[in-house]
Protein: Sigma-70 family RNA polymerase sigma factor
Organism: Paenibacillus whitsoniae
Amino acid sequence: MAINPKLESQLIACITEHQENVYRLAYSYVKNQEDALDVVQEAIQKAFAAAGSLKNTTSLKSWFYRIVINSALDCLRKKKKVHIVDDKAMELIASGSEDAYADIDLERALDDLPDMYRSVITLRYFEDLKIEEIADVLKENTNTIKTRLYQALKLLKIRMNDDALVEV
């Protein structure tokens, strides 16, 4: 299906404007620089391939974020293994950004969360999306997102407290 020039320019503008956030989002799932770049590239290809079927351009950002998340989850399913991030790689990703995980315990606790909870936490607190935007990205009801966010924070608190107890 051919993409109209106006939609193509809107998609290019969206991808360009959110490129760093999209990369961080992909990286938060795959924990590997090369895989994150592959996920972003695959998401861009999928977005252009499916753009002709997009009916509402007002949700372009949410639509693209959803493609990135799905591509990251596909990558994880293909790999079926955990990647450990070394300090040097984390510094390269952070490069002065305030969104980097400052606490390794928090990063581990986030990694242990099921995908549905990790996605909500990542989109809300690391990508700074509103509840309604998260609901749009994940194609869920806003009340479902609120519930998942509450449950995810509760799980994180339990895991962080458990880790603190183990260290003592």
User: Anything to note?
Assistant: The chain has two domains: 1-100, 103-168.
